[in-house]
Amino acid sequence: MRLNLWILTSWASASASAVAALGVGGSDLQQPLVSQPSKIPPLGFGTWNLDPSNVTEAVTAALQAGYRHIDCAKVYGNQRAVGKGIADGLKKTGLNRSDIWITSKLWNDHHNTSALVSEALDETLVELGLGYLDLWLMHWPVGTDADGDTKLDYLEPWQQMARLHSTTKLRHIGVSNFSPAQLKDLIRNSGAKPAVHQFEIHPYLPQADWIDFHNTHGIAVTAYSPFANTNPTYNSGDDDPPLLLKNRDMLAIAAARGCTTAQVALVWGMSRGYSVIPKSSHVEYIRENFGAIGCELDGEDLERIDALSEKYLKRFNNPSRDYGVKLFEGLEDS
Question: How far apart are CA 59 and CA 56, in angstroms?
Answer without folding.
Answer: 5
